[in-house]
Amino acid sequence: MRTIRIFEHISLDGVIQTSNEDGDFPYADWTAPYITPSGRDALVAMQGENFDLLLGRRTYDLWSASWPKAPSSPIADGINRAMKYIATHRPESLEWGPFEALGPDIVEDIRRIKSHDGPDIILWGSSTLTSTLLEHGLADEVVLIVYPVLLGTGKRIFAEGTPPRSFELVGTKAMPSGIIFSTYKVARPLKTG
């Protein structure tokens, strides 16, 4: 069985949006001032050499406009060669591959993909898919790349209505730029009192 890992660049107040895709986000590329060679190396090590990607359609469209044109690097090469599993209602318009469009029952398709042998599956950028994975017990780990900024506005990591969960800290690594990589194992439903 494959492991599904959620990776997110995130501000201290939970914002994961890094681009102005809707035209009303004032802080596009807010992560750029903090990215360093050592941070990139840490990210490459955390992703591993071989992985597949699970992407929402919006993230796929944003990434397909830039990653195929990116200069060769460990990050770009890994992303470009990864199998991309795409949640989309418009599979006929997919071009950047290799890819497989997920069908109308995304949860069942993800279960099917997860049940086969293969590399880890990494989800980047989709708060909707993040919530779906957690709701259906499909995510195994959450890797938060936390930046020392408050944004106050933008898309948040978890969609409204995401079920409560407990997480177990697996590891953490601080970078000189102030970024903190924290890896959590999805543990169980939230217990209170």
Secondary structure topology:
Blueprint: E1 4-11, H1 37-47, E2 51-56, H2 57-64, H3 74-81, E3 84-87, E4 99-102, H4 106-115, E5 120-124, H5 127-135, E6 141-147, E7 165-174, E8 180-189
Parallel strand pairs: 1-5, 1-6, 2-3, 2-5, 3-4
Antiparallel strand pairs: 6-8, 7-8
Report the uncertain regions: none
SSE order, one letter for each helix or strand: EHEHHEEHEHEEE
- Strand percentage lies at 25-35%
Distance between the termini: 34 Å
* Secondary structure tally, helices: 5
In round numbers, the mean pLDDT is: 89
Strand order of the largest sheet: 4-3-2-5-1-6-8-7
Q: What is the 3D shape?
A: globular
Q: Summarize the biggest pleated sheet.
A: 8 strands, mixed
Query: Nearest-angstrom radius of gyration?
Result: 16 Å
Query: Could you say which structural class the secondary elements and strand pairing correspond to?
Result: alpha/beta
Strand segment count: 8
Relative helix content: 10-25%
Please tag this protein with its features.
alpha/beta; eight-stranded mixed beta sheet; 8 strands; 24% helix; globular
Structure in words:
- By secondary structure, this protein is α/β, with parallel strands linked by helices.
- It contains five helices and eight strands; from the N terminus they run βαβααββαβαβββ.
- Strands 4-3-2-5-1-6-8-7 form an eight-stranded mixed beta sheet.
- A hairpin with a 5-residue loop joins strand 7 and strand 8.
- The longest helix is centred in the first third of the chain and has 11 residues, at 37-47.
Quick overview:
The protein has 193 residues and is an alpha/beta fold.
